[in-house]
Amino acid sequence: MIKLLTVLLLVMINTGCRDSKKENNSQNALQQVPSPANTASAQPNLFTDANGLVYLSWIQRQKDKSELKFSILNNGHWSEPGTITSGNDWFVNWADFPMLAANGDNLLAHILQKSAGGTFTYDVKLVTSADDGKTWSDLKNLHSDGKKAEHGFVSLLPYGDQFFVSWLDGRNTVNESSNTAAHHSGEHGGAMTLRGAVVTPQGIKTAEWELDNKVCDCCQTTAALTANGPVVVYRDRSNEEIRDMSIVRFVDGTWTAPQIIHPDGWKIGGCPVNGPRSAAIGNVLAIAWFTSANELPQVNLIFSEDGGATFGKLIRIAEKNTIGRVDVVMLDDKTALVSWMEGSVIKAAKVHRDGIKEQPVTIGASSESRSSGFPQMTKSGNNIFFAWTDDKEKTIKVARLTL
């Protein structure tokens, strides 16, 4: 009996050492990377192009204006930060932030510009570059409705030799008598819609669609390119105020009807802001999102093997202490890396299509406050790059996780 207990104790000790070593190795593979952003910087966005170049964009606040800056990581070094555009009439928001996408030498970025005096009256403005960011065009309107309403929460993707864009469009929320966004003022108005478009590298629309005629007012959209075509994932809104995640897919030249990804049943009489994130390799699609149905906060992940037509079993990533703010990248066609926040701590974990979750890694510390924004993640080769706002130092931090 004593020998048996001794053997069991040794097994437990060895197993614990292996688990501890695995976690330590994961932490050792995480390195802080010098950030190209100065102080008074926030709202980071990360993008990796087809050649593995990593682009970081952010908003730099000046006394009387905002600047959209960017830098490119090449051979381990950030380029000198460049200015995409600047202005003193922007709508700057912790959750609705500018994005940048690259397609060869062609870059497309967007900012939000105030269109009237109302808090939520702003337009999506596109800005383009044909020389990898050396020079930039004038601002162009993404939408042509002319309404003084909310337009934002943009997603950008390279699409063939053009770009695909999705956004939330408040043209139907406007009270025609006052031409103001009624959905935030409490007046009677229509619903927020989801729209998509294809634009050229010069920012000219070649196609546009309404994808859903009633969605949650202020959650991020996310788009991914599957082998079948682009998909858009977003927080939907039913007449009963159920705000679960839906997907629309562009298949054979036609958009599918909205489809609920998983029936969380989160009933909430307002916008929870936390939007989904998606990533795809071929027709393997991974979607991560936050929900708090029945007042139980959760971060979930789900896989599809047919470009979003059907989905596998729900995988619970985090609960209890999570505040969401998720991101996801595909490591290969069987594995995703998901990031989320638990309180002020940013975490990430590998998750396999068969439901196996690996030990989480702590990426860094931010803040639960709105000003800390949403941590970002992108994959380049065997490296995962993270960017987030350090609310105390008022600057952007960057880290690299080597797989």
Question: How would you describe the overall organization of this protein?
Answer:
The protein has 2 helices and 32 strands. The protein is mainly β. It folds into 2 domains: 51-214, Neuraminidase; 271-403, Neuraminidase (6 Propeller). Strands 2, 3, 4, 5 and 6 form a 5-stranded antiparallel β-sheet that branches. Strands 17, 18, 19, 20 and 21 form a 5-stranded antiparallel β-sheet that branches. The model is unreliable at 1-24 and 182-188 (pLDDT under 50).
Number of strands: 32
Mean pLDDT: 91
Number of helices: 2
Task: Please give the radius of gyration in angstroms.
Answer: 21 Å
Low-confidence stretches: 1-24, 182-188
| Share in β-strands | over 45%
Question: How would you characterize the largest beta sheet?
Answer: 5 strands, antiparallel
